[in-house]
Amino acid sequence: MLKRLLIDTAYKINTSNNYTKTKHFFYNLLENGDYRYKKVFDLFMIALIFSSVFILIREVKSHVNDEFLFFNNYVISVIFFIEYMLRFWVSSSVTEIIIKQSEHDALLGDKFRFLRALRKILHAKLKYVISFKAIIDLLAILPFFHQLRLLRLFILFRVFKLFRYAKSIQVFVSVISAKKFEFITLLVFASIVVFVSSVLIYVMEANNPASPINTLFEAVYWSIVTISTVGYGDITPITEAGRVVAMFVIVAGIAVFSFTTSLIVTAFTEKLDEIKDTKLINDISSIKEFYLICGYESVSKEVAKKLMQNSRVIILEENLQKVLQAKKDGFFALNYDPGSIESYRKLRINIEAQVKAIICLSHSDVENVYTTLTIRSFNKDVFILSILKNKANRNKLVFAGVNELFYEKELVGMVAREFVGKPVAFEAIHALRFSYNGVDMQEIVVSERILDSFTSVGELENKKYRVVLLGIYKKSENEFMFNPPDSTILELGDYLLVIGNTQFIKEFTNNLHKRKQ
Predict the structure, then answer these.
(1) Contact predicate 35/21, CB 8 Å
(2) What integer pLDDT is reported at residue 126 of this predicted model?
(3) Which of 78, 140, 256, 445 suits 342 as a labelling partner, its CA being 20 to 30 A distant?
C-alpha cells in the first residue's frame, strides 16, 4: 500500500504543470548558460560575494555597522543556503527515478523495488553533494554561524563561488584542466624538490647558531620561496653547504617556472580555436533567423553573398582550410562536420525558430545525402535545398528528404533569380513549415497505474488529444498490432506507439497517469 502511494505521489508530482514549470525555471536560472535571466542572477551573486569579502576586510581594523554585519552574516548566508538547496533539488529528479524504476519493474513483471530506487536517489544526490562546486557552496554558508569567529574566515570561500558565475574563470579552468596530467607531474616534481631541499637546508643550517633557519618549518618556507623564484631575502643560508643547496634549488625553480609557463601557453594555444568557436556559437544562439549552408565551395561563396543581402548566413564545413577561407571572406563559419548529429548539438540552435533554410553545397552528392539524412533524423520540417552534381543521384537526394534540387551550373542563377530576387519566397516557405513542426513519435509502456483506469484501446481517448495510435506491441504475444481495434485488451508491459504534436502527446500521457477508475 505504501509503495503504491509512493508511486502515485511521484506520478502526481511529475505530471503537475506548476511543479514542472517551477523546477524548469530554477534549473535554467542556475545551470542553463543560454537562459536570458541567468546573466542577471550571476551578476547579483557576484555582487553579494564581493560585498561579503569587503565587509570582512573592513571589519579587521575598522568598526562596521551592525546592519552591515547582519546583512553579511545572515542575509547573504541565507541567500547562499537557498541557492544551495535549489541546486540540490534540481541536480536530479527523485520522482523520475521512482517512476522509471516502477515502469522497469512492471515491464519485467516484478513488484516495485523500493530499496533499489532509494539507492539510486541517494547515489544521485550524493554525487552532487561531494562535487567540488557543491563543497564550496557549503563552505560559503558556514559564516552563518558567526558566533564562532574562526568560521567567519570561511567567508573567503565565497570568492571561490566566482567559478560558478564568471565564464572567463570557467574557460581558464577548462583550459588548465586539459593539461591536468602535465600539471600533476609538475606538482609532484616541485613537491619532491621542496621536500629534499627543506631537509638538506635544515640539516646544513640548523646547527649553526647564527643561521636564521632553526626549524623545519622555516626550512620549508625558505624552499618554497626560493623555488618559486620570489626570493624575499628574509631567510638566507650562511654556510657554504647551505648556499650550494640554494643554487640547486634556484636552478630547479627556474625550470619549474619555465615549465609552468610553457604548459599554460601551450594549453591556451591548443584551446584558442575552441574558445573562439564557443564565442561564435554564443553569438549564433542570439541571432533570430539565419540560413545554414553546409559545405564551403566556390558556389557557396556566391550564394552566401546573395543571401546576406537580406539575412544572416552560417557556414558549416569539415575542412579546416575551407573554414579559414570562409572566415577570411567575411562569413560566420565553424569547423563542424555537417553530416554529424553531434555538430548540431554543439550549435545549440533552435532549427524550427532560427533556421530559415538549410542549403547543402558540398562537393559530393554523397555528402549532401548524408547531411540531409542527419538533419532529417531530428527535424522533419526544416526546408532543405541541395546542389545536384550528378543526375543519377536525384532520387537519392529526394528520398533523403531534400525539398528542392538544383543543377550545379544553374544553382547561382536560380537562387539569385527565384529566392534572392524575391526574398519573400523563403520567408513564406519558412512560415508554412514552421506551423507544422514539433511532430514526434513516442512509446508509452502500459503500467499498473494505466491499467487501473483503462482496460482496452477504445478507452484511451487518444483522438480527443489529437494523438494517432499507430499500433500496440503485445508483450504476452510478442507481436506488434498495427492500428488495433478498440476492443483490444491492454495488458501489463504492453507498448503504445503514438505519433502527434509533442505537446499533445505529453497531455495524452499525463491523462493516462492522472485518471482514476
Answers:
(1) no
(2) 92
(3) 445
Q: Any residues with CB less than 8 A from the CB of 113 and at least 6 apart, and which?
A: 101, 105
Do 293 and 366 lie in a common domain?
yes
Per-residue pLDDT tens over the stretch 290-338:
899 999 988 888 888 878 877 889 899 888 888 888 888 888 888 888 8
Q: Are residues 415 and 397 in the same domain?
A: yes
Same domain, 184 and 258: yes
**Is residue 477 in some structural domain?**
yes
Question: How far apart (Å, rounded) are the C-alpha atoms in residues 253 and 232?
Answer: 14
Kindly report, residue by residue over 241-252, the tens digit of the pLDDT. 888 888 888 888
CA pair distance 415, 418, nearest whole angstrom:
5
Q: Which of helix, strand or coil describes residue 285? A: helix
- Please, what is the angle between helix 114-129 and helix 94-108, to 10°? 150
Is the same domain home to 135 and 71?
yes
- Residue 280, domain member (yes or no): no
Q: What is the DSSP string of 36-59?
A: TTHHHHHHHHHHHHHHHHHHHHHH
pTM, two decimal places = 0.53
Q: Which structural domain range is residue 129 located in?
A: 2-165
Give the residue carrying C-alpha cell 564557443: 278
Q: How far is CA 362 from CA 331, 359, 402, 415, in A?
A: 17, 9, 14, 16
- Domain CATH number, residue 495: 3.30.70.1450
